[in-house]
């Protein structure tokens, strides 16, 4: 019996080492992005864009909206990924640009900064995103949106919401990059800020960072002139 078990084990090991046997995945290797990022990106690769499409590209704030239902238009497409960063956008941009979409509305950067990233790196990546779109899809109009205000009053997402006083300064720098690159800059900060607290108006959010339904309707109003 022992000899039979030893022979079985030897055969199994030989099969594992066979050149025709696929190597197992290394699940211990660190991933550059989250599992959710790769899940969404694999879906987007199966859903090609076209030159009629209006793309909403960004992080959880874009991801959280049902753009097609909001506008009742199948060409309005959600390409947001919760937790995404400017580097994440760069890494998956080819999936977007290969369809030569009509317009891209980009909202990105708060996760970079909320995790301790530098504004200089955000600006550098925004410039690289703009350049890649110009190179790969020159007829696509890129709209770079300001960061939204945040609020630390609810004591959630402390890394992000602690930045509430700095966001206006960040937005000025983002606007400068947008103008330098010949893109349209859209101020979505001002309509969402509470004039008394200078933070995100909590009629639009229940966590100080993400938007409620009323917030998405407000956003829809702000960008309406750019959708014509």
Automatic annotation (TrEMBL):
SUPFAM superfamilies xrefs: SGNH hydrolase (SSF52266)
Superkingdom of the organism of origin: Bacteria
Gene Ontology molecular function: any one: phosphatidylcholine lysophospholipase activity
PROSITE patterns cross-referenced by the UniProt entry: PROKAR_LIPOPROTEIN (PS51257)
Keywords: Signal
PANTHER family registered for this protein in UniProt: SGNH HYDROLASE-TYPE ESTERASE DOMAIN-CONTAINING PROTEIN, THIOESTERASE 1/PROTEASE 1/LYSOPHOSPHOLIPASE L1
Name listed for the protein in its UniProt record: Sialate O-acetylesterase
Species of provenance: Muribacter muris
